[in-house]
Amino acid sequence: MANIKSQIKRNKTNEKARLRNRAVKSELKTYTRKVKAAVSTGDAE
Questions:
Q1: Left (φ > 0), alpha (ψ -120 to 50) or beta: where does 42 sit?
Q2: Residue 44 pLDDT
């Protein structure tokens, strides 16, 4: 655990960013999977 006040704040910020980034990456992977499936089946949508 950090003792320096600015580092404690930075850790909170980093955790929020990590969770947001994880959600975005997951969504991107989902859409990528859907597009690949659509391309393989020949779906134009």
A1: left
A2: 67
